[in-house]
Design brief:
membrane; 191 residues; transmembrane helix; single chain; transmembrane; mainly alpha
């Protein structure tokens, strides 16, 4: 797996930009964008599943091995595109989600009596590994960021990116088996 990078903000954010209203609006916008990326992914995979089912039905009814093979190979290519889009959407989702978490942690620290807007530390102190080591456990207590903190039975919850990757793997297996089925006579003739 690739290492996730933490989104950065301009280091020269002024106290006006760090007002609670602005930060709450920014957090809300990042959560909305994360939800939008997730909805795009779900809609695309739903349409792709219908396409795969329909095209495999057509391939089984064509009666011509050449056209069936072309259809299945086209689905292999489309499944590769779907896999790439799943990775891209997961990266976009994680970036928005991570930034919303960082903003939430910053606001939580301010609510606990840390310096006010006039003396607020630069937002850059909330970047990188030290941020997650020092502040990660605190922000993870929020229900919306860590569901298994409230529901321990969901500790081994599989995230949607993992489910979509599993779906893509199953489609690859299904397409491979379909190719074997279409060319079974040819395969048995070789053996």
């Amino acid at each position: 797996m690739s290492q996730q990078t933490t989104p950065t903000l301009p280091r020269e954010l002024s106290a006006e930009l760090l007002s609670e209203t602005f930060l709450l609006a920014m957090m809300n916008e990042n959560l909305n964008q994360a939800r939008h990326a997730e909805n795009e992914r779900m809609m695309f995979v739903t349409l792709f599943a219908a396409l795969v089912g329909g095209m495999l039905a057509v391939a089984s009814e064509v009666g011509n091995d050449f056209f069936s093979t072309i259809i299945i190979l086209l689905l292999f290519v489309l499944n590769t595109v779907c896999s790439c889009l799943t990775r891209r959407w997961n990266s976009v989702f994680k970036t928005h989600w991570s930034l919303a978490r960082r903003i939430g942690c910053y606001l939580a620290d301010r609510d606990q009596g840390l310096p006010d807007d006039q003396n607020a530390p630069a937002f850059s102190m909330y970047e990188g590994e030290t941020f997650w080591k020092n502040y990660g456990p605190r922000i993870n207590r929020f229900f919306c960021f860590d569901n298994h903190a409230i529901h321990p039975e969901q500790k081994h919850y599989i995230h949607t990116a993992g489910l979509f990757s599993l779906f893509n793997g199953c489609v690859y297996i299904l397409l491979g088996l379909s190719l074997i089925y279409v060319h079974w006579d040819w395969i048995t003739h070789l053996i």
